[in-house]
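fyi for ur records
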Amino acid sequence: MEQTRLQHSAADAERPDVSIIVPAYEEAESLPELADELRAACEEAGLSFRVWIVDDGSRDDTWRVVQRLHEKDPRVAGLRFRRNYGKSAALSMGFNRAQGRYVATIDADLQDDPSEIPRLIDTLEEGYDLVSGWKKDRKDPLSKTIPSRFFNWVPRHFSGLPLHDFNCGLKVYRREVVKNINVYGELHRYIPLLAKWEGYDRVTEQEGQHHPRKYGTTKFGTERFIQGFLDLITVVFLTRYAVRPMHFFGSMGTVAFVVGLGINLWLSIEKLIFGNPIGGARPLLLLGLLLILFGSQMFTTGLLGEMIIRPRMEDPSTYEVADAVGPVDESAKEVPASVEE
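which gave:
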C-alpha cells in the first residue's frame, strides 16, 4: 500500500496543479512540520502538488532534513546552494523548476499558514495574475514592523498597486508570471512591482494568519534596511525608466543645466551692468558651473542609455505575446510561456 501511494505521489508530482517554492536558510527544525502542513492543505483541497525546498547554503541539518522528506514523499524535492546567495536567488531557482498551473511561495519559518494556499488559489481564479498574503495582525517586533510600513508605503505610492504587504512570503501566481519575471539581488521584496512591469497587473492581496516564530531566530539583520532602500530605488527606476532612460537622466540634466545657466547669466548681467564682481566671496559662479557640468553629464548618460537599449527594444522577441489568432509564423523558435499550454 505504501509503495502504491508513493507511485501515485511521484506521478502527481510530474504534473502538479501547484508548485510550492520554499526558500530555506538554517530551518532544519521547522521543515518537517511545514511539509506535513503543506501536504495536508493540498490534499484536503484536492490539489496535486510538488514542493521545492531551496536550501540557501545552510550550515545546519537543513539539507539532510530535505533528503529525508524526499525519501518519505517524492512530491517534496530539494535544491541546495553551495553557499548563501539570498532569498531572491532561491526564489529564482525555484521559479525555474516550477511546473503546473499555479506557483506558490511560502517562507520556511512557519509564520505563514500553509492552509491559506488553496484559499489564495481560489482568489487567483477570479481573474488575477498574483495574489499576495497580507500579515495584517503581524506577530513580529517593532524593529521589523515599523520599517516594513515605510517600505510598503513607498512602492504602493509609486506603483498604484493596492498592497499593504509587498514583502509577504506567502504568494500565489499563475505560472506564466514567474516564468517572465527576473528576480535577483534582493528584489524579492518587490515581486508584485516586477510582475506589473511585465504586464501582469491584475494583483490583489488577501488577509491571512501570521504566527510568532516557533523555531530559531530571524536570519535578517539591520543591514536589510539599507538594502531595502537601495532595492526600492532600483525597482522604481526599473519599473518606470528602464526602457526610457533619457526621461530620467535627461529630466535631471535639463533642470540642472537650466538652473546653472540661469545663475551664470545673472552673474554676467551683474558684472556688465552693475559692475559687481563675479568671484571673490561669492560661490555662485562655482555652483553655476557645477550645475552646468552635472546637467551635461546627466544628459549624456541618458543618451548613452538610449543607445544601449535601442538594439534590444528593436528586437521583436523583446515583447511577450500573451495570445494570438490567425496564421502562426513557422519561423518562430519559441512559444511564449503564457500560451505554450
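The chain has two domains: 9-241, 245-318. thats all i got for now
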